[in-house]
Design brief:
Elements lengths: L1 E7 L3 H12 L4 E4 L4 H6 L5 E2 L1 H9 L4 H6 L1 E3 L1 E6 L2 E6 H5 L3 E3 L2 H14 L4 E2 L2 E8 L4 E7 L2 E12 L18 E15 L9 E3 L6 E7 L2 E9 L9 H11 L13 E14 L3 E2 L2 E3 L5 E2 L7 H22 L3 H4 L1 H23 L8 H14 L1 H12 L13
Parallel strand pairs: 1-2, 1-11, 2-8, 5-13, 11-18
Antiparallel strand pairs: 3-7, 4-7, 5-6, 9-10, 10-11, 12-15, 12-16, 13-14, 14-15, 16-19, 17-18
Helix pairs in contact: 1-6, 1-8, 8-10, 11-12
Bound molecules: flavin-adenine dinucleotide (FAD) and 3,4-dihydroxybenzoic acid.
Length: 396
Amino acid sequence: MHTQVAIIGAGPAGLTLAHMLHLQGISSVVIECRGREHIETRTRAGILEQPTVTLFEELGVADRLNREGLSHNGFYVRFDRSTHHLDFHRLIGGNATVYPQQEVVKDLVAHRLAAGGPILFDTAVTAIETTADEARLRLDHRGTTTELTADFVAGCDGFHGVSRAHLPAAGLREFTRTYPVAWLGILAHTTPTTPEGMYCAHESGISVHSMRGPRITRQYLQVPAGTDLADWPDDRIWDELTVRSASDDHPELERGEIVDRSLAPLRSYVCETMQHGRLFLLGDAAHIVPPTGAKGLNLAVSDACVLSHALGGWYRAGTRAHLDAYSQTCLPRVWKAQHFSWTLTTTLHAISDDPMDWPLRRARLARWVESEAEQAALGEVYLGLPFPTPWRHPAA
Ligand code: FAD
Ligand code: DHB
C-alpha cells in the first residue's frame, strides 16, 4: 500500500492534518493504535483558542462545535478568598470555547470517514524507515504485520509514540522540565461554581474549576507526583477542592457524583528537532506543556496548519522551502505557549518550600487583577496567538 502522507495517530494533530490534506487533494492514511470508541471517549482537554475555532470553521468541521461549544470571555482567578474575573474578550476581542477534545476527535473522525479517507484503527506503527526517496512503515493489526510506503510521515502519535525515537540522537535538541506535582482530574454531575472556568491559588496548591455543560463540571486538583488514585476516595477529593476554592464571595462548592477520574503529570518538553528527512513531528510528539493554560491541543492544531501549508506547497508547486522551514516556523509559537504555561503553572501551584514563594506569587496575582495591561498580555496568549501560517483553501 502506498500513500502520499502516512499520518501516525488519530488525535487532534493527525486528524486535523488529514482533513487539511484532503481539502488540498493530497492523499493520506491515518494509523491509530487504539479503537475508535477509545479515542472518541477519552476525557482530556477542553479549551479551544479562537484561532483553533476559526480554523475549524474554515475547514467546515465546526457545525456541532458552534452549536454546543460554550463561548467564554476569559477566566476567573480566586486567591485570599476573593474571586476576580479577567475579561480578555473586552480588552482584545476573541473568545475561548469550551468543547471537549473527544468531541473534536469525534467530529474530525466523522468528516474523515465521510470523505472516504482511511483511518486504520487498532493498528500500531511498530517501525519507521526513511530513505532519500520514500518512507516505509511497519504496521501491526492484531498480530498481523503489513507495510505502508509514503512520500512523507507525519508523527502525530503523542508523547509516548514511536516517531520521535526515529530522529537521530546526534544533534537532537531537546529541553525537559518536570514538576513534582500532577493534576488529579474529575468529571462530576454538579453545577459550575462560576459562569466561566476558575483557577484557585491556595497555599496548599491549585484547584481548577471548569465545566462541560450546565450540570457537568471538570475540576482539577494539584497532588504530589506519583500519587495513587486509590488514595483519593470521593470525599477526600471534594474536601480538598472545597478547601482550595473557599471564598467570602461565593457559596461553598457543590458536591456530586464523580463519573471519571484521572491523573496527569506536569511536564514541559520541547524537541526542537521537529523534522528529519521525510519525517515531521506534530503536537505532543514534539512538545508537551503543563496543562495550566490549556495550550496542548491548540499547539497540535497549529502544527498541523503549518505542515499542511508546507505539504500543499510541495505537491502544488514543488516548493521545498516551507518543508525545510517547518521546525523554525512552528517553534516561536511553541515557545510562547511554553512560556505562558510555565507562568500560569508557577503562579498558581504551590511547588516551592521557599517562604518567599507564596508572597511573590500573591503579588503576581494581585498585578493580574489590578492591571489591564497585565490582563491584555495574558489574554493575547490565552485566547490564542495567530497561527504561524494561515489556512488558505486551494480553491480560494
Ligand atoms: P494525542 O491526542 O496524544 O494523539 C496521539 C494518538 O497517537 C493517540 O490517539 C495514540 O493512541 C496514537 N498513537 C500513539 N502511538 C502510536 C503508534 N505507535 N501507532 C499508531 N498510533 C499511535 N490541551 C488544550 O489545548 N486545552 C486543554 O484544556 C487541555 N487540557 C488538558 C487536560 C489534561 C488532564 C491533559 C492530560 C491534557 C490536556 N491538554 C489540553 C493537552 C491535550 O490533550 C494534548 O496536547 C493533545 O491531546 C495533543 O494532541 P496530539 O494529536 O498531538 O496527540
Ligand atoms: C481545562 C483544562 C485546562 O488545562 C485548563 O487549564 C483549564 C480548563 C478543562 O479541561 O476544562
